[in-house]
Amino acid sequence: VLVSDSVYGPTRKRVGANLLQRAGVEVTYYDPLIGGGIDGLIRPNTRMIYMESPGSHTFEVQDVPAIAKVARDRGILTVIDNTWSSAFFCNPFSLGVDIVLEAGTKYLCGHSDAMIGTVTVSTEEQFQALKAMQNTLGSRAGPDECFLALRGIRTLSVRMERHQKNALEVAAWLEARPEVERVLYPALPSDPGHEIWKRDHTGASGLFAVMLGEAPKAAVAAMVDGLELFGIGASWGGFESLAIPIYPKGSRTAVPWPHDNPMVRLHIGLEDPRDLIEDLEEGFARLNAAK
User: Fold this and answer.
1) What residues pair up with 244 in beta bridges, in sequence order?
2) Which domains are present in the chain?
3) What is the pLDDT of residues 13-51, one digit of tens each?
4) Cα-atom radius of gyration of the chain, to the nearest Å?
């Protein structure tokens, strides 16, 4: 299995190391910017390519159609984690992907009150194989979780549009801050993946990362700890904003993350963006005072 090096951390640890490798499945991580060059990594025993675009920490946008074409020509299944965009902003099947995963806990539910995931396949054969495995493992979504996901889907469009509007406003403000080296958000024209994002997606979610200038860990902690409107947490996708320090360098193996800068991942919720900006401005004051 070929897996993107920018994949969600628990996918690398729990699925890649704990599940697949223990079952004798070889896992090779690849540069998320490899595009059609992934053909050079395919071996006789390669059966699947697992993508996540953008990556949920470093936000590289993969050339999904190019990877999917290589895989299809070689008879290899492609799977993508589409949680960042949700089905509202991206249809991976139109890009040539075979199987689409989504953490429904996040944008589908939208209220941070249920745990559910979705697997969507493109053929009857895939469906029957998935159904058989699900019956074997006995895994099912509970009725309460299904109800909450169906409830959330009713407001998915209005929520996603507001997440995008708020995130663009906050991200543009952050780009102009002297404390910020870079904002990692594909919807910004300055982002390296902007053109591919614009080609393959119809919008952007509220999740992005902020690369700060040089600052001690205690200063970053002071900034984040004092935020009033941002909760501290990893499970984004709800209506409230979140902030959490991230350290991508420790979770890359195919392509080393070249930056030592402190980073904070933000999920921009449905609050008034002016209030969020004011909260972040006070956070930068704490950051600067603690340097």
Assistant:
1) 265
2) 2-153 (3.40.640.10), 156-290 (3.90.1150.10)
3) 888 888 888 889 999 999 999 999 999 999 999 999 999
4) 19
